[in-house]
Design a protein that fits this description.
Elements (H helix, E strand, L loop, with lengths): L1 H11 L18 H11 L7 H8 L4 H15 L2 H8 L2 H11 L2 H12 L7 H9 L3 H15 L3 H8 L2 H11 L11 H13 L9 H10 L2 H15 L3 H8 L2 H13 L1
Helix pairs in contact: 2-3, 2-4, 5-6, 7-8, 7-9, 8-16, 10-11, 11-13, 11-16, 12-14, 15-16
This protein binds 2-acetamido-2-deoxy-beta-D-glucopyranose.
The site of 2-acetamido-2-deoxy-beta-D-glucopyranose has 4 residues, from helix 12.
Organism: Daphnia galeata
InterPro entries: Annexin (IPR001464), Annexin_repeat (IPR018502), Annexin_repeat_CS (IPR018252), Annexin_sf (IPR037104)
Family: Belongs to the annexin family.
């Protein structure tokens, strides 16, 4: 259920109003009034869910951050009140909406690695879609909040080529410039071919490094030139050459690109 919620939130862009701006900032913005409304929602015999929805579900991430801190300074802890008064997925989603982007992502990353087995797909998708700066914010929040680093959790819960890929991405080592060096594109195309379709088995390291270090615009050019040169799509190559977590991760990056 939580994983579904995460996917919904990350893919729709509704909650953070970031990727697809379907949510525009409330104007005029009245954080004191909003905090008071929320406070009122907890006062009656029954919690007023409509008030909670109308405040938390219709404001942008940065506005919700201000509302949450206003509430906390004037009326105690919003998170605790939501925890106490609500239940089920409505509780889960409402609490998530009070978290800053960084805290939200940190908690979700932690959750993907808690419990039985690691939710590798969610882990890949969260790490893949964040900028180096966002990842740096998450890493520093994470270590303060949990007392150990994000990378150490990834190390304990993953292995092999997938581990190296996800760590290089989590450490924010991806080139983020928008300039594409076509000489390097050509070199990468040849390297990927030589390390994949040209040999029996595949040289995972070559794929891991190119897919975790190069910019997404660069990878887009690599995909185009690869197909032009060898008559096969890079997406197909990664799905035939690799299986398991690494296969799915490389495939996801191709799709994301
Ligand atoms: C482009 O990539 C090639 C090959 O790696 C490198 O030798 C060259 O210096 C790069 N050019 C620029 C402008 O960075």
């Amino acid at each position: 259920m939580r994983i579904l919620l995460i996917s919904f939130i990350l893919s729709s862009g509704i909650v953070f109003g970031q990727d697809i701006p379907t949510l525009v900032p409330a104007d005029p913005f009245d954080p004191n009034g909003d905090a008071l409304q929320l406070f009122g929602a907890f006062q009656g015999f029954e919690t007023d869910n409509d008030k909670i929805v109308s405040v938390l579900f219709y404001q942008t991430a940065s506005q919700r951050e201000v509302i949450t801190s206003t509430f906390d300074s004037q009326h105690g802890s919003l998170e605790n009140d939501l925890k106490f008064d609500l239940a089920g997925s409505f509780q889960t989603l409402s609490i998530m909406l009070t978290h800053s982007m960084t805290k939200f992502l940190s908690i979700e990353l932690h959750e993907t690695m808690s419990g039985l087995g690691t939710a590798q797909r969610a882990l890949t998708e969260i790490v893949m879609s964040r900028t180096n700066q966002e990842l740096a914010d998450v890493r520093s929040f994470y270590v303060n909040y949990y007392g150990h680093s994000l990378v150490s959790d990834i190390e304990r819960n993953t292995c092999c080529a997938y581990q190296k890929l996800i760590i290089q991405m989590a450490e924010g080592m991806r080139d983020e410039s928008n300039l594409v060096n076509m000489t390097l594109v050509q070199e990468d195309v040849v390297a990927l071919y030589e390390a994949g379709p040209a040999i029996f088995g595949a040289d995972k390291n070559v794929y891991v490094n190119i897919f975790s270090l190069r910019s997404y615009v660069h990878l887009n050019e690599v995909g185009i030139l690869f197909e032009l040169t060898y008559g096969m799509s890079l997406t197909n190559v990664v799905t035939t050459e690799f299986t398991g977590d690494i296969g799915y991760a490389l495939y996801s990056i191709c799709k994301y690109v």
